[in-house]
Specification:
This protein is an alpha/beta fold and 802 residues long. The protein has six domains: 104 residues, PriA, 3(prime) DNA-binding domain (GIY-YIG endonuclease), CATH 3.40.1440.60; 55 residues, no CATH class; 74 residues; 177 residues, P-loop containing nucleotide triphosphate hydrolases (Rossmann fold), CATH 3.40.50; 181 residues, P-loop containing nucleotide triphosphate hydrolases (Rossmann fold), CATH 3.40.50.300; 90 residues, ACT domain (Alpha-Beta Plaits, 2-Layer Sandwich). Helices cover 31% and strands 23% of the residues. The protein contains 23 helices and 33 strands. The strands form eight sheets. A seven-stranded parallel β-sheet has the order 14-15-13-16-17-12-18, with helices on both faces. It has a six-stranded parallel β-sheet with strand order 19-29-28-20-27-26, sandwiched between helices. Helix 17 links the parallel strand 26 and strand 27. Helix 1 crosses helix 2 and helix 7 crosses helix 8. The two termini are 56 Å apart. The site of adenosine-5'-triphosphate has 18 residues, from helix 10. Adenosine-5'-triphosphate binds next to helix 10.
């Protein structure tokens, strides 16, 4: 019997509507409504989009149900696994179900884009309606009105791979076509078809006779196949023995086609790691491994060989990397090993490109997915292994709703697919390392660098002694000497400017006025190249003033260390050095990262100066010196993870030195030379750091000993924000046991952003069965919140507490 009722989640992100609504299924749509398709339904006075999440045979209240008006998808956009996952993510992150479902889809499908139909099969549609539809073009607008039979026909074509539905994305990317050729039917391809002395054309003719092709080849591919130039292929078209046509080509995200490489012979350590992973793939055990491998220990090669094992087993593989644009090298390596079987998903892609990749995955054309955080929702079926590289990275946690952590989502999917998860890092998060300690994860270590290369020696420079009139504030004499030395040897250096909370500000030297944002409690940052002051929180911009608005003096000066300013100073110290700067400004343009890294890799610069983004994953064998200009800025943050972050950053960046045959060295400038995070990072002693930091977390009752939930309450009025925060804290406390700890409410360290005030409550707990429901009720039932324009954000295991 056909289902009569569909449960639909409508596209309204409020607590009140965050539940399935019943809709009747009209008979004409009966065979189109399935879980995972999107529909248009009447909702109040509006028509809304929604997702079908379930079907049932009986109506909840007979006859009174409104009916589904339209089905948007010919095939489900979310399969049962992803549908169930979206629900789980919504529950565990206190998000709206609609929001998690939307997060899983490429943006092109979310907005109101126009749809098209493209006939992809060689032969024409069999029936008259289809032939009429595609009479003038292979791609036509999606018809406005379709009968049920016609929709059924479209669905059948899609299932038979004869038809695709596309979204016209108006920004940047349009579907790309390339000129192509096919054999002209009925043309005799004899050598008489071209002049005897036209050698290239004769060569092509011979090739076409001895090695003919079917279907369509792009001009360059045809040229390569027959060893002639593209011009010759064009001549052949003119002569009529090849027919010209076009093909849709995939918008290739990174536009790189690296040379294919072969698996490397593993070292003994790599082999024992790979053996365990491959065994878990084969045995289909949802086991979680923590691969703790020092920088340059060859973790990537182990990932690649494990992926190969999953593919050989007929399964697929998912590999997450932190914000992929930051690691073009990693993507390059995966593409070099697996070529077209790889789909790449990351935030640098246009909507059209993302959609292309997503569809290749959904259709099973791409069996390996490499991507940043949201790629954890890639529509892969039959996953054989999930890898999370640099698992300690905070970018795996989304810091806006839905506040999911990709690691947790990965672990959940792995359970569904019965596949192992590999968490890799030189500096694992304390949470993961502690789980390995307890035996929840299996610890696998790579303690040595490849080819017995030593880890580089690290020198700590005490910047408190770097004073006096003649010294440069940002460059100790030791660092300058090392840079000069490296330059003289024609080797390369990497310089890290740790900019977190540290940027150039404009100040009046006469009265002390500092340029501040009118909307936020934060000073504005100087962007000298653009001659602007910019707020990094709300985006407010204003010109740099020439006179102080308070005392009218013209002594406006800049202070603080911006990357631009350091670059200027560095150029003065080393006039002949070729410097490349890599920060948010210099990489804003698409592909900016890849371009800078590429230039540096080719030896077009001597020094790569950059922010955090240069610390991770770079593998340049020619780098022999790494300098850290200011190691301390992260230490000063009011966050219990400050030491962990500092340790991770310094260890990672130090690991960029000496990866090739020449030995490297590292210089760390700091005002806290005795701090354990800096001392242990200098020794690359992860285990030592782990033990020490664990003791402190235990004393302070912080993760991984305690769980944390952060409530952030905001409103346009500070009084309302404070009142509501105290009320919420008061409501929560009775729900909690004696062992739970409630910190706050306290104003956030930057209390006002974009003219809203922010207060926080941090709950630390070990086991609170009633907390989840309590928080849920708080959000659902609170009319007061709505009335006062109060927003409450709930963040389970927040990565940033400020
Ligand atoms: N078995 C092997 N034989 C030879 N070279 C190898 C082998 N495995 C890896 N390499 C090379 O060693 C270098 C370091 O490896 P890789 O970048 O994978 O290390 P990693 O552990 O990911 O480092 P990091 O954590 O610093 O990013 C790379 O250039 C890689 O090509
Ligand atoms: Zn002034
Ligand atoms: Zn602002």
């Amino acid at each position: 019997m056909m289902a009569q009722t569909a449960q639909v989640i409508v596209d309204v992100a409020t607590r009140q509507t965050d539940q399935p609504y019943d809709y009747a299924i009209p008979e004409t749509l009966a065979d189109q409504v399935e879980p995972g398709v999107r529909v248009i339904v009447p909702f109040g006075r509006r028509k809304l989009q929604g997702f079908v999440v379930g079907l049932s045979d009986t109506a909840a209240f007979d006859g009174k149900l409104k009916a589904i008006e339209q089905v948007l998808d010919l095939t489900p956009v979310l399969d049962p696994e992803l549908l169930a996952l979206s629900k789980w993510v919504a529950t565990t992150t206190f998000s709206f179900w609609i929001a998690t479902m939307q997060t899983m889809l490429p943006a092109a499908m979310r907005a109101k884009y126009d749809r098209t139909l493209t006939w992809t099969a060689d032969e024409k549609p069999a029936d008259g309606w289809g032939q009429a539809l595609f009479r003038h073009a292979r791609t036509v607008p999606y018809p406005d009105t379709l009968t049920a039979a016609q929709t059924r026909q479209l669905r059948a074509w899609v299932k038979a791979d004869q038809l695709t539905v596309d979204y016209i994305v108006h920004n940047r990317a349009k579907a790309k076509t390339q000129k192509a050729v096919k054999l002209a039917p009925g043309k005799a391809l004899t050598s008489a078809a071209a002049p005897k002395n036209a050698k290239a054309q004769q060569k092509l003719l011979t090739g076409l006779q001895t090695k003919p092709f079917t279907g369509v080849l792009t001009q360059p591919v045809a040229a390569a196949r027959y060893g002639v130039s593209v011009a010759t292929v064009r001549l052949a078209e003119k002569a009529g023995w090849l027919q010209s046509t076009t093909v849709n080509i995939r918008r290739n995200p990174l536009a790189i086609r690296p040379e294919r490489d072969q698996p490397k012979r593993l070292t003994a350590d790599q082999q024992q790691a790979a053996d365990q992973f491959v065994a878990a793939v084969a045995a289909k055990t949802p086991q979680t491994f923590l691969l703790e491998g020092v920088t340059g220990s060859g973790k990537t090669e182990v990932y690649l060989q494990t992926i190969q094992a999953a593919l050989d087993d007929g399964r697929t593989a998912l590999m997450l990397v932190p914000e992929i644009a930051l690691t073009p090298q990693m993507v390059h390596r995966v593409l070099a090993r697996f070529g077209d079987a790889v789909a790449v998903l990351h935030s640098g892609l246009s909507d059209g490109e993302k959609f292309d990749e997503w569809r290749r995955i959904q259709r099973g054309e791409a069996r390996i997915v490499v991507g940043a955080r949201s790629a954890v929702f890639a529509p892969l079926a039959n996953i054989g292994v999930i890898i999370i590289d640099e698992e300690h990275e905070t970018s795996y946690k989304q810091d806006e709703a839905p506040r999911y952590h990709a690691r947790n989502v990965a672990l959940h999917r792995a359970k569904t697919f019965h596949c192992p998860v590999i968490l890799g890092s030189a500096t694992p998060s304390l949470e993961s390392r502690a789980r390995a300690e307890k035996g929840v994860y299996t610890l696998v270590r790579l303690p040595e660098r490849i080819n017995d290369r030593p880890l580089p020696p690290v020198h700590i420079i005490d910047m408190r002694k770097n004073s006096g009139a003649r010294v440069q504030p940002d460059f100790s004499p030791e660092l300058v000497a090392a840079l000069e030395n490296t330059l003289a040897k024609h080797e390369q250096s990497v310089l890290l400017l740790n900019r977190r909370g540290y940027s150039a500000q404009a100040m009046c030297r006469n009265c002390g006025w500092i340029a501040r944002c009118p909307n936020c409690d934060i000073s504005l940052t100087v962007h000298r190249a653009a001659r602007k002051l910019v707020c990094h929180y709300c985006g407010h911009e204003e010109p740099i003033p020439t006179r102080c608005p308070v005392c009218n003096s013209d002594k406006i000066r800049f202070f603080g260390t911006g990357t631009e300013k350091v670059e200027d100073t560095l150029q003065k110290i080393l006039p002949t050095a070729r410097i490349l700067r890599m920060d948010a400004d210099s990489t804003r343009k698409k592909g900016g990262h890849a371009r800078i890294l590429n230039a540096f890799g080719k030896g077009q610069a001597d020094i790569l100066l950059g922010t955090q983004m240069i610390a991770k994953g770079l593998d340049f064998p020619t780098v022999t010196l790494v300098g850290v200009i200011n190691a301390d800025t992260a230490l000063g943050m009011p966050d219990f993870r400050a030491s962990e972050r500092t340790f991770q950053l310094l260890t990672q960046v130090a690991g960029r030195a000496g990866r090739g045959s020449k030995p490297g060295s590292v210089i760390i400038q700091t005002y806290n030379p005795d701090h354990y995070a800096i001392q242990l990072a200098a020794r690359q002693d992860y285990e030592g750091f782990f033990r020490r930091e664990m003791r402190l977390r235990h004393q302070g009752k912080y993760p991984p000993y305690y769980y944390t939930v952060l409530l952030t309450i905001s409103a346009p009025s500070e009084t309302v924000t404070a009142q509501e925060s105290y009320r919420i804290a008061g409501d929560l406390k009775p729900l909690l046991s004696q062992t739970a700890i409630v910190l706050g409410p306290t104003p956030r360290s930057i209390t006002r952003i974009n003219n809203r005030y922010y207060y926080q409550i941090l709950v630390k707990f070990k086991k609170e069965p009633a907390l989840g429901r309590g928080l849920h009720n708080l959000l659902t039932n609170s009319q007061a919140l709505l009335k006062n324009k109060v927003q409450v954000a709930i963040d389970f295991e927040p990565q940033q507490i400020m």
